[in-house]
Amino acid sequence: MKINFIDLQAQYKKYKDEIDSDLESVLNSSTYIMGPQVRELENELADFAGVEHAIGCSSGTDALLLAMMALEIGPGDEVITTPFTFIATAEAIAFLGAKPVFVDIDERTYNIDVSKIEDVITDKTKAIVPVSLFGQMSDMDAIDSLAKKHNLYVIEDAAQSFGAEYKGKKSCSVSDIGCTSFFPAKPLGCYGDGGAVFTNNTELAEKIRILLNHGQTDRYVHEYIGMNGRLDSIQAAVLRVKLKHYSHEIEERNSIASKYSENLKNVVTPHVDEQNMSVWAQYCIRAKEREKVIQRCTQAGIPTAIYYPIPLHLQKVFSNLGYKEGDFPIAEAVSRDIMALPMSAFLAEEQQDYIIGVLNGE
Question: What share of the chain is helix, strand, coil (3-state, %, to 5)?
């Protein structure tokens, strides 16, 4: 049985006529950068997330950079985040000359442990960047309360969670700035790199728009040191089509995740907090003998992946921060036995039954 880890081909075939038509319209218009498709997408993303401003940009990583640049985070500043995520989160902090400060994770959700954040706040702390990992948001009210108490900014790294909900509010709508990624493998992905920044602060939104276009306020007039962080019209066209179907895909993802959780045996299945609705960017289990389980899956033709095998505090690139093995025991323990199973809105029932059977040793 042929099983894809993420079935992008099945998705394209379903929306092919719509996608091809919109791509052709972009090609015929020859407005490839900052064209009308980008502005239309931004309006639709803002409506979907329930925010005033959505700004399309070139990637999820650039979305984080733009958010931090707009908040003037830089040398001498500290930014609190999680060591259990993709490197882009801490990379953006370090790239701007600020210091990533890590906090261990909650063992059930794998998101940052909010109860440990206040212990590392100093007079140099400028922001908290919780990552909505695997499609589930952190306890954002508790984080926001801490931020207000200490006069800090909150940037939600929602690269994996666009469309998720926390207490009925959409991801990217519950912090000073939300950042997401449209990398093809994301729940809402384009056909290249892409991302977006979300905020209800008009001043910040205007600044981000300037920063992503080389700090330019008028043609060849530059107010800031910016970057080339623009989203191209072809990616916007793809995303506009997919966004129309996205709510249904989220329902399918949750149905598939529920079936996994109800039927898998002898592994730890993911936990979603009661106030949350996940978009299941990944479906990650924990297995005591992970390598044996992966080998069994590989022999059966089932693709798997490990998110994430080495926590960020143990990565060579961050050795200068002075962390060592044992500093964040939960993140380290999870990294040793976590693994992801195939997940997409297009995972067929018979494919999932087969995966569950192989995992259960049937």
Answer: 45, 15, 40
Instruction: Give the per-residue pLDDT at 325.
Output: 98
- Whether 146 contacts 117, CB under 8 Å: yes
DSSP symbols for 241-283: HHHHHHHHHHHHHHHHHHHHHHH--SSBPP---TTEE---S-E
- Predicted TM-score (pTM) of the model is 0.97
Asked if 223 and 210 count as a contact pair (C-beta separation under 8 A), the reply is: yes
d(CA 152, CA 136) in angstroms, rounded, equals 23
CATH 3.40.50.720 fits 8-103+110-239, yes or no: no
Q: Under DSSP, is residue 100 helix (H, G, I), strand (E, B) or coil? A: strand
Tokens linked to 225: 């040191």
pLDDT at 358 over 90: yes
Q: Are 186 and 242 in contact (CB under 8 A)?
A: no
Q: Is the pLDDT of residue 362 over 90?
A: no
- Domain range list for the chain: 8-103+110-239, 246-359
